[in-house]
Design goal:
There is one protein chain. The protein is of the alpha+beta class. The chain has a domain of 82 residues: Thrombin, subunit H (Beta Barrel), CATH 2.40.10. It has 2 helices and 6 strands. The chain has a 6-stranded antiparallel beta barrel. The longest helix is centred in the last third of the chain and has 23 residues. The N and C termini lie far apart (115 Å).
């Protein structure tokens, strides 16, 4: 008696717990020494992301990844193939965050000047400090020096 069976094979790297969204955006990864490493985030999902960098990140190492619009996430390097590294987040991120990731800039550009401040009275200005005349400053320095040398001589004897 024969049994009918279907055999399914799949590449372990292609098995996904959640759908990945391609992003191809610049980011920064920090290793355990807090060293900044420039990377390209290729894609992102709720459970991880793929990053490209020529810097070799050891499999199993823990990193922090900056995700524009989301914040930073702790992740573990799970695979590496050339410059491509697979990362698994320590905690899955919300599906909404996956959609928001890299849709906002990390730097806000704008015409910032005192004219754009709603209430100019809130701007703090340094107080005006009146300097002593040069002769008074020299007299103060010279007098202080004489007093200190006098104290040194008095202690020496």
């Amino acid at each position: 008696m024969g049994l009918a069976a279907k055999v399914f094979t799949s590449d372990a790297a292609e098995r996904r717990i959640s759908e990945r969204r391609p992003v191809d955006r610049s980011s920064t990864v920090r290793d355990r020494n807090r060293s900044a490493i420039d990377v390209i985030v290729s894609d992102i999902s709720e459970t991880g992301c793929a990053i490209e960098t020529p810097t070799e990140l050891p499999i199993g190492s823990e990193v922090t990844i900056g995700l524009a619009g989301v914040g930073t996430c702790t992740a573990k390097i799970t695979r590496r193939s050339g410059n491509l590294h697979g990362c698994e987040f320590a905690r899955p991120i919300d599906p909404t965050m996956v959609q928001l990731a890299f849709t906002r800039d990390t730097v806000v550009a704008g015409p910032f000047s005192s004219a754009t401040i709603a209430d100019p009275s809130l701007v703090l200005h340094e107080p005006m400090v009146e300097k002593w005349p040069p002769a008074a400053r020299i007299a103060l320095i010279g007098g202080s020096s004489l007093l200190l040398w006098g104290a040194i001589v008095a202690l020496a004897f």
